[in-house]
Fold:
Amino acid sequence: MLQADYKIVKETDTKAILGLYLQAGWWQSGDKDEDLNIIAKIVANSFCFVIATVDHKIVGMGRAISDGISDAYIQDVTVQKDFRGQGIGKGIMRTLVNFLKEQNLKWIGLISEPGYENFYAGLGFKVMTSYTPFLLSE
Structure:
């Protein structure tokens, strides 16, 4: 297992974070300056934004959104492809969950991409069988 450091941040290297979003397929490249500005706002305005670093290089991220009172949603958890399978994703998740529990948040949810169910189940998450996620279509 690779030794990584985990840190909760309100600002960080936006280029590295944009690179993670692009690699995960969650971002369509546009105006780079505007993209970096949006990334900075995502980091600053998340309830909790975690970065994972190896030798001071950002190799993973994850975040939670919440009102800080009733519940939290974890999203955007990803690790750079070369660093996957070495426990970094688990470290990001543990850092997020520990922080949320320290804030007395009891309801912590997420929506998994297909194929990652076992990863989240191994961290104590269960499938919400009586619920269906929805997304507003435009």
About this structure: The longest strand covers residues 57-66. The domain at 5-121 is CATH 3.40.630.30 (Aminopeptidase).
